[in-house]
Give the backbone structure.
Amino acid sequence: MKGAEAIIKSLQCENVDIIFGYPGGALLPFYDALYDSDLIHILTRHEQAAAHAADGYARVSGKVGICVGTSGPGATNLVTGVATAYSDSSPIIALTGQVSTKLIGNDAFQEIDALGIFMPIVKHNFQIQKTEEIPEIFKAAFKIATTGRPGPVHIDLPKDVQENELDIEKYPIPADVELIGYKPHLKGHPKQIKRALDCIGKSERPVIIAGGGVILSNAHNELLKFAEMMNIPVCTTLMGKGAINENHPLSLGMVGMHGKKVANMAVSECDLLIAIGCRFSDRITGDISTFAPNAKIIHIDIDPAEIGKNVDVDVPIVGDAKIVLNKMIGMGENFKPKNDEWLSHLYSLKKGCIPKMDYNDVPIKPQRIVKEIMNVIEQLKIEKNTIITTDVGQNQMWMAHYFKTHMPRSFISSGGLGTMGFGFPASIGVKFAKPDSKVLCITGDGGFMMNSQELGTIADYNIPVVICIFDNRTLGMVYQWQNLFYGKRQCSVNFGDTPDFVKLAESYGIKANRITKPEDINEGLKEAILSDEPYLLDFIIDPAEALCMVPPGGTICEIIEPVREHPNEKPVCFDEIVRRLKEKENLRNNPNNK
Amino acid sequence: MEHTHIISVLVLNKPGVLQRIAGLFTRRWYNISSITVGPTDISGISRMTIVVKGDDKILEQVEKQLNKLIEVIKVSDLKCNECVERELCLIKIHAPNESEKSQIIQYANIFRGKIVDVSPESLTVEITGDVDKINAFISLVKPIGIKEIARTGLTAMMRGPKILKSNKSK
């Protein structure tokens, strides 16, 4: 069979049923083989969207997401999406076409050093140089992507390698492949686990931080069992949102820069911090020298390189979260901490920090939208059946701070890389992974415009996702920081009056609605969600509304109020800009003529 | 406290492996003094010797990040006083006169170096030894006039019978 056929067979052998991609010259043999196969291919409108869709698919299903782009610009367009998956340890495989092996290194048409470009943003990558290597390399790629700390893998596929014949009997798809240099440690050292339990038993103010690793490990049940057994409160990172039901009494909410006050206070005042599947990013710690100043730290993580990287750790445990938590549950009966006072202190703090969300202002306050989203989910009884994707910036942080998740893999957000334009295409992958779920994409106008072309994809395939644009016509988070830290000197954060998002959606044949009054939010959301069609909701929100935050490099228990300022940038039109440019050019060419 | 560390790494000899490792060091701002790499007695496996400057915390991260790479089989921090370290240096020295030439030859003999090239105006000396020995020779001939230096960078091996090998047999 042809190499391209072997590629498709290798994918199907790994239970891949759907891929997201965009063809090109260097991938013609692959797409020709696709024509004869029953592997489903979703054509996006940009390779970046294909990568985000594959990422969304992987985050929600736990399976490997596959994205495909051609050589040269197709590959470079995948880069942002692959880097996004890398930063959040998401298992995707990016396939790129490449020019024929005879042409590599000669600056051929649409040739690029894809191997070199992807190297720093993948767990590992391969360039297949002989067709017979296909079965083994694909097997290795899936193994690497899905084991240990998951992550993206890139495979570069020269055109002649796709075209040449492969004797599948001589080079069959192996059942497994040995990788000498790769052996993830999953079990957790028993002595360390015992030490950790000792610390827990002696503590009076313990807190758990659950990170993305708990969700990747599918350890949410174990986390709950452990937390309830030991009666220890749980806060989460952004990536850990959903690891515990945020309506549970032991849940403190998200911790960190835009975290809940009670979570930040708990971490700052605790005497024992149990971090599970969390990498202590700067968004969580703030200034490390003032982070959890009185706490012993237990760090459970599958990646030994994360332990001790940012924060000094007292009890390191290298292992898979699910396996280690199970062991701790099994051994933990005699190590329950005496922390009743601590819990009452946190409960009363929590009670005193209930945020106001039911604003009736016009323009709409974003908190009101988040409140109504939660109301609608409750009213329609779809708590177990709703998946949120967010974009990046204020929209993301309003959701992360205020929205209460019920289950894991239901809050999909670009945490590590913070990629604008992620939310909408990710929702496409999410919907294909869980077609029976209601999928809401929460995005800002800036982020939406980065991949708005995917309206074509959802229109074409009739993919019923609901896009909720938090529309303030600004690059909100940057704008917020300029107001707070740069003396309100707003520079390049104003998007002006275009486009009319409703008209834009309608031009693709997609239903859309603009919502300007808070009393219309609930009905608007219900109509969109129950329509079971692709739907765009344009919420006009107050651009001056901003989030409380921990300043960068600050102490996480010192949360500051934002500076609420209206947009003050003066728009400049083309004619005026050209006039200024010509004036400058004249001065440069005629320095004596003033 | 900053120290100099010698790390020996066994790697699979696949295309791009040197780039992977060098790239890792660049993007994490690890301070490399030198990298050498060459084949081992096992086909398909190469040995890299990397000299890194940094404190213990950096060294720990360097080893852990190297271990994450799929093509890295084994990483070992060679304790300086328990290993043999060697570097090779070729030095072209300005020597237009007989007196200079004979002085260089004397120095070379004392350091057990070899004259590998001679021309009317220059002598090229080959010196092998640890870093201190090579640096000492260079300082000695500097006043005479160094025209060019080419150093290989350090390679090293533990003293005694223990060897660096992968945990799994190939």
